[in-house]
Protein: 6-carboxyhexanoate--CoA ligase
Organism: Bacillus lumedeiriae
Amino acid sequence: MQEEKYYSVRMRAAKNGPHEHGGKHISGGEMLSTYRDIKYAMNALLEKGLTHSRGNPDFMQVQFELIEEPIKLIQPLPIKTNKVASVEMGQALSWELLEKTGIPRKIIEKSYKYMTEYSNIRGAIVVDIQSGDRIDHRHEKGVRVSRMDWLNNNFEKWAAYYKMPNSPRVKEALVLAAKVSEHPASVAELCWSDDPEYITGYVASKKLGYQRITKLKEHGDEQGCRIFFVEGLKEWDSYIHYLEKQPVFVQWEGDKGES
């Protein structure tokens, strides 16, 4: 894998102008690609941006750049699906799971208030679990995790083994959660999509793995959530560099020895 050069291919789409000019976020995505597959990657991201349920964009940016750093291989998190009958039950379960990772309940409650305050945030909020303070200072932009992927053939074998949906949405979420959880300062992540038609979300951590929750918001709700809970973070620039710049491939070890 390291012998071949890879490129980070990224897309962002918005309505009523670019994000930085107040445009509504429609869609975003990213892939790691060899040069020969860049056209495929760009077309896949273009299709994603043009067909999102949040609306039709009038601004889109698709770009690619050569990855200079060595690509780190990481394992997918253990996965469990928690089926709940209502959003209330799903939210209650998410709080319970976050508490199991060691986050005080009062910090979880404070973090939820940030999501109300920054309802149009495009990236993640980073919260210190000791103080409960939002420490990223990125305002409406938030923190965007980038330069990550999971080779399709390996992901498909993983999905078949665990009887999980073989979908780009599931793959993207698993890749991001695995990368975030890999950092020593990361305690947990809480996430649900801003897609009004997709209500499944998750809590992820090194301790609990990837815990899917089938209902974390109501159908039609366009407000998403992504919170990274951290502890003992002393080098902020290093943490951000890891999330935004460190290239990562998720690779399931169950695929070892298979052709």
Notes: Residues 73-255 form one domain. The mean pLDDT is 92.
